[in-house]
Write a structure and sequence with these properties.
Its cofactor is pyridoxal 5'-phosphate. By secondary structure, the chain is of the alpha/beta class. It has 12 helices and 16 strands. Strand 8 and strand 9 form a beta hairpin. The protein binds pyridoxal-5'-phosphate (PLP). Pyridoxal-5'-phosphate (PLP) binds next to helix 4.
Length: 417
């Protein structure tokens, strides 16, 4: 707290908000040094899937830490990485034959962009333009910011961001999006990157599977690579393992991070179709894929991911998702009728509601007031502007979900104009 030299992410230190010190966590609970139990209603920023400190994942990390802690991954391999790759191949779309490891969602996106450009360059048809969907978020590194929504978050860095083709977010039946994509695809762009079904940081904005299928069809017809950023939507958030499977869409390149270790360790993968790998396959060393970071495929993180994959294989995760989805709908039905609630929406386990406000957007003046009300009530919720969303770990029980609904109701009534 005071006296700490830590510079926190997405934190305005000048506002002087308290920074709680957490000592341990279990399931949906965070325990603070001053003796409070806080309900983690946003899965510690969308990463914790099954619950904090899942015993199987904890045990896998313990065992791996004592066996092999870290290994150079350029030209070397280890059993946990092989297990993860084999597990992903068995559960992800069969067309995605290659697994490239990295360590964060942002990096998995950078890798995806480099793979796309490498594909075109190494097959003798250089292309570099990237198409993006309005209001998207793909991470905070320069490349990931370039393909994300421009705004207050990245205004100072704008001169460094590369130019992209921005496709409008669907309104009505989505004709606006499809027509713009069709037109933009005629200029032979390298790739179109999308968050399937839910634009997370953009405000939990949702669009139907049929639209994703139509966008994918346009890309396929124009030979434009489709990159699915399932960093947030993957691992069950939308009710299925991947959001894109609800649209029957298999992307050319798939980004996974956050829930890949159940939310326990930093790890990411970028999966690609065989022809994208083969474009880099050569006896010419100049065509190898020039990307790595020190902790690529860290064995301890891979052991956690392998345990997560085993949980998916052996436990009734999909049943839990269906059950949580129904309970999230009940929560929304209750909150939808409150005065000041403008709209509610849900996709799988993600529930969101917008508050009526004069000043919309991420910098809405409502957000800090809501944040402190939630903090005082010992519920971790972090509104996106005037959008409140609930994205809990899948193990959340009735009592905690009811408590979250109570606290949101209290806060909505309190901030009412
Ligand atoms: C969180 C997020 C990222 C960035 O992941 P990090 O691990 O935070 O770098 C990228 N894309 C989407 C859709 C995300 O939600």
């Amino acid at each position: 707290m005071s006296g700490s030299s830590i510079w926190h992410p997405f934190t305005q230190h000048g506002l002087g908000d308290p920074v709680p010190l957490v000592t341990h966590a279990q399931g949906t609970s965070l325990y603070t040094a001053d003796g409070r139990r806080v309900i983690d209603a946003i899965s510690s920023w969308w990463v914790t899937t099954h619950g904090h400190c899942h015993p199987r994942i904890v045990e896998a990390i313990r065992a791996q830490a004592g066996a092999l802690d870290q290994l150079i991954f350029a030209g070397w391999t280890h059993a946990p990485a092989e297990r993860v790759a084999a597990g992903l191949r068995a559960m992800m779309p069969a067309e995605l034959t290659r697994v490239f490891f990295s360590d964060s969602g942002s990096t998995s996106v950078e890798v995806a962009l480099k793979m796309a450009l490498g594909f075109w360059a190494h097959t003798g048809r250089p292309r570099s333009r990237i198409l993006v969907l309005e209001h998207s978020y793909h991470g905070d590194t320069i490349g990931a910011m370039s393909v994300g929504e421009r705004g207050v978050f990245n205004a100072p860095y704008e001169p460094l961001l590369f130019d992209v083709g921005c496709i409008p977010f669907p309104t009505g039946d989505g004709t606006n999006t499809l027509e713009a994509l069709e037109a933009a695809c005629r200029d032979a762009p390298a790739a179109f990157i999308v968050e399937p079904l839910v634009l997370g940081a953009g405000g939990m904005m949702m669009y139907p599977p049929a639209l994703l299928a139509a966008m994918a069809e346009i890309c396929r017809r124009h030979n434009v690579l489709l990159i699915a950023d399932e960093v947030m939507t993957g691992w069950g958030r939308t009710g299925t393992l991947l959001a894109s499977e609800q649209a029957g869409v298999v992307p050319d390149i798939l980004c996974l991070a956050k829930g890949i270790t159940g939310g326990s360790m930093p790890l990411a993968v970028t999966m690609a179709r065989e022809d994208i790998f083969m474009a880099h396959w050569s006896t010419d060393r100049a065509k190898m894929f020039f990307h790595s970071s020190s902790y690529t495929a860290n064995p301890i993180a891979c052991a956690a991911a392998a345990a997560n994959i085993a949980i998916w294989r052996e436990e009734p995760v999909l049943d839990r998702l269906a059950d949580l989805g129904a309970r999230q709908q009940a929560l929304l039905d209750r909150l939808a009728v409150l005065p000041g609630v403008a709209a509610v929406r849900r996709c799988g386990t993600i529930a969101a509601l917008d508050l009526e406000t004069g000043d919309g957007g991420y910098m809405s003046s409502l957000a800090p007031r809501l944040l402190s009300l939630f903090r005082e009530a010992d519920v971790l919720l972090r509104p996106l502007g005037n959008t409140i969303y609930v994205m809990p770990p899948y193990c959340i029980d009735e009592a905690d979900l009811a408590r979250i609904a109570d606290v949101i109701e209290m806060a909505v009534l309190t901030v009412r104009p």
